[in-house]
């Protein structure tokens, strides 16, 4: 269980660190090195928690960090892998 939580935390960290500006899901999964489905799952959870906002523009979904998301990104970026 602990190993699974650690892996998930690392995935969330990679997700948040890869967002420097509004980006599409495709840009995030390529930059973070995560699977597309993982990025979708993480983005859904983070959006429900208020750490990111997303909007559909044409055929793509744009993801932006909220102020709380920026704070979480700073905290997680300080953690060691």
Give the secondary structure arrangement, pairings included.
Elements: H1 2-17, E1 23-24, H2 25-32, H3 36-49, E2 52-57, E3 60-65, H4 67-78
Antiparallel strand pairs: 1-3, 2-3
Stretches where pLDDT is under 50 for at least 5 consecutive residues are none
What distance separates the N and C termini?
17 Å
Helix/strand-derived class? alpha+beta
How many strand segments? Answer: 3
Read across the widest sheet, the strand sequence of neighbours is 1-3-2
Average pLDDT for all residues:
88
What's the main sheet like? Answer: 3 strands, antiparallel
Quote the CATH topology: Arc Repressor Mutant, subunit A
Strand content: 15-25%
Domain module tally: 1
CATH architecture: Orthogonal Bundle
The helicity comes to 55-70%
Order of helices and strands: HEHHEEH
The CATH superfamily is identified as: Winged helix-like DNA-binding domain superfamily/Winged helix DNA-binding domain
Number of helices: 4
